[in-house]
Design goal:
This protein has 219 residues and is an alpha/beta fold. The protein contains 5 helices and 9 strands; from the N terminus they run βββαβαβββαβαβα. β8, α4 and β9 form a beta-alpha-beta unit. The longest helix has 13 residues. It starts with 7 loop residues before the first strand and ends in a 6-residue tail after the last helix. 39% of the residues are buried. The mean pLDDT is 94. It binds iron/sulfur cluster.
């Protein structure tokens, strides 16, 4: 018998790697990459996940995750929240005892995401080309330990992000703020120097998986 639609997702890939981003960087992690995204950030490095994929029952995904044999699971995309089936999937992964994180664009509502999930929420900068898509009400659903990520494309983006952090009083929230240089656009050393000069309480994030394996899909 087929699973109900809500217990299925369109899946691009499942793979075991090291977490390349966030405060869990470097930990062996299973990545569950769902298909599809309503955004088109100019720096997107997962365009291969926009289309295709295979409709897969959540129970089968749990089996594949278990076969990888690690306790950290990241559900990513694309934009995972574009599919209703991701909500029961996240819940089931938490119920199974995994440390679960969700990478999301910040454009779709996170209100119904299981509270045990650590959200890594993007705030899209002007340089992304998708700044108008930020759903600011998502900031009301942040839990302690969640993370907010700005991908910085240039100095203008840096100044915008710094002011946004002030305006949204992100410094006083119990969340991590990550600044990540857009690959091939923003020099990482330059961004580090700006952060130090401004004594900005943000974490500079480099994409470890790209340093190790380049742009190879599934790594
Ligand atoms: S939200 Fe993420 S997956 Fe979607 S276009 Fe932007 S970078 Fe790519």
């Amino acid at each position: 018998m087929n699973a109900p639609v809500a217990d299925q997702v369109r899946l691009t890939e499942i793979f075991l790697s090291l977490q390349g981003e966030s405060t869990s960087v470097g930990l062996p992690t299973v990545f569950v990459r769902l298909t599809g995204c309503p955004l088109r950030c100019q720096y997107c490095d997962t365009e291969y996940a926009f289309h295709g994929g295979t409709v897969t029952d959540n129970a089968e995904i749990l089996e594949q995750v278990a076969a990888c044999g690690v306790r950290h699971v990241t559900v990513t995309g694309g934009e995972p929240l574009a599919q209703p089936g991701v909500l029961p999937l996240l819940r089931a992964l938490c119920d199974a005892g995994y440390a679960v994180s969700l990478e999301t664009s910040g454009a779709l509502d996170t209100a119904a995401v299981d509270e045990r999930v650590r959200k890594v929420l993007d705030i899209k900068t002007p340089g992304s080309g998708e700044v108008r898509r930020n759903l600011w009400s998502n900031l009301d659903h942040l839990n302690p330990g969640d993370e907010i990520k700005f991908v910085i494309c240039d100095r203008q983006d840096y100044d915008w992000a710094r002011l946004k952090c002030d305006e949204l009083v992100l410094w006083s929230r119990p969340v991590e703020v990550l600044f990540s240089p857009s690959a091939g656009q923003q020099n990482a050393t330059e961004l580090a120097d700006w952060i130090i000069a401004d004594r900005l309480p943000v974490r500079l994030q480099l994409q470890l998986h790209k340093l190790l394996w380049g742009d190879e899909p599934g790594r």
